[in-house]
Amino acid sequence: MTLDPALSLRAALDTVARQLREGRIEEPKREARLLVAGALGLSLSDLILRESEPLGQRAPQLAEWLTRRLAREPVSRIAGQREFYGLSLSLTPATLDPRPDTETLVEAVLVEARGGRFGSSPRVLDLGTGSGAILLALLSVLLEATGLGIDIVPEVVAGAETNARRLDLSGRATFRAGDLFEGLVETFSIVVSNPPYIPSGDIPALDPEVRLHDPLRALDGGADGLDFYRRISREATRYLQPGGLLAVEVGRGQAEDVARLFAVDGLQAGGIRHDLAGTARVVLAFRP
Ligand SMILES: C[S@@+](CC[C@H](N)C(=O)[O-])C[C@H]1O[C@@H](n2cnc3c(N)ncnc32)[C@H](O)[C@@H]1O
């Protein structure tokens, strides 16, 4: 595929959107804006202001990005970057692309933390931290909080450290490689996690954007998708301070089961929160 460098950005947007529509990509106009802005290194608002300018020497880059998108690679993977809770996060190939739904978890924790409920300098643990999205978003608002993000994949941990540095949060956020709570000796005011939760048997049917481009390790939650919640539930009390909050993201249809697991393990129910689509997305519990 080639694109004429003399095309105006407006015409390039139309061409890219048409090709995406023909390639059955959802929201072709929105995706076209992201691709054109990303390939030209422009913000979305700058793109609007410069629509009459020619594509110029970035035309081959845009053509390559369009070819990759038509092969079902997500825009955030192509650009190596994702906006999450107003933060710009870079992604490595081993890192899960953070989803807007996960902002529901961030919001739910911030509501609970209002009024200094967890003391003047809460300590946050993020299990399966990936890009560091949840921990970094929380620390960007809770200015006195500090936190630790743990992930089993060392390359992912390195990516989260890079994000913390770029966001000027590395003084309050540390990261390390590990298997959930393994080796931890301290306790936390808040434990958050968006663990792998897709039932293993559902993975082959996922959209290609997810199945081919998100790491399997970030997706596979075992036979019923609940393996990580069982482990977290069993061990959380030991790593939470009294009155401390456990907040997890869950997949569709899992909230009641996860709330039940937490109750059986002696945690006090903190309720279920829904995402913008109305799906039960977050389960909260407290150490009594
Ligand atoms: C669904 S992703 C969530 C990533 C990130 N927290 C987010 O919300 O975008 C789950 C993460 O858990 C990590 N993971 C998988 N098994 C783990 C384990 N046993 N211990 C720690 N992290 C694990 C994966 O590498 C992946 O980064």
Structure description:
The chain has 288 residues and is of the alpha/beta class. The chain has helices at residues 9-22, 28-40, 44-49, 59-70, 75-79, 103-113, 133-141, 154-166, 208-211, 227-239, 255-264, and strands spanning 81-84, 87-90, 123-127, 146-151, 173-177, 188-193, 240-249, 268-274, 280-286. The chain folds into two domains: 9-71; 85-286, Vaccinia Virus protein VP39 (Rossmann fold), CATH 3.40.50.150. It contains eleven helices and nine strands. The strands form two sheets. Strands 5-4-3-6-7-9-8 form a seven-stranded mixed beta sheet, sandwiched between helices. It has a two-stranded antiparallel sheet with strand order 1-2. α2 runs antiparallel to α4 and α6 (103-113) runs parallel beside α7. The radius of gyration is 21 Å and the shape is elongated. The N and C termini lie far apart (60 Å). The model has no long low-confidence stretch (mean pLDDT 97). Bound molecules: S-adenosylmethionine. The site of S-adenosylmethionine has 22 residues, from α7 and β4. S-adenosylmethionine (SAM) binds next to α7 and β4.
Offer a few descriptive terms:
about 290 residues; Rossmann fold; 2 domains; elongated; alpha/beta; seven-stranded mixed beta sheet; binds S-adenosylmethionine; about 20% strand
